[in-house]
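Regression test case RT-17, inverse folding.

Input:
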């Protein structure tokens, strides 16, 4: 437990960027696998009733980005690590713009 406490006790923008990239990436792949298994289990019902899958990749990506906000608050409020919080905020903002770009691309494909 002491080892884990020392790993996350850093006040650096680069450490915030690392956390901001790793957390959503890991969470995205975990959620993606979870959605895959839920879809396998419920696919016949969903396809017959709604003609769509359980949840889209963009929604899973947005959920993964959302968890950065929890870490952002933890580092700013509880630990007073402003630099780490800034790094997490920068990456969260960039990932949000990526999400918007993905959704806009999907929207333009639907319009065409």
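Golden output:
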């Amino acid at each position: 437990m002491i080892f884990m406490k020392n790993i996350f006790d850093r006040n650096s923008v680069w450490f915030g960027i690392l956390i901001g990239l790793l957390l959503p990436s890991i969470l995205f792949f975990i959620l993606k696998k979870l959605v895959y298994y839920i879809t396998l289990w419920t696919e016949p019902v969903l396809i017959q009733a709604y003609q769509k899958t359980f949840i889209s990749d963009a929604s899973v990506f947005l959920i993964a980005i959302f968890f950065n906000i929890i870490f952002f608050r933890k580092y700013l409020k509880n630990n007073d690590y402003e630099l780490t919080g800034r790094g997490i905020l920068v990456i969260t903002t960039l990932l949000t713009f990526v999400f918007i770009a993905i959704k806009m691309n999907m929207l333009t494909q639907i319009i065409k």
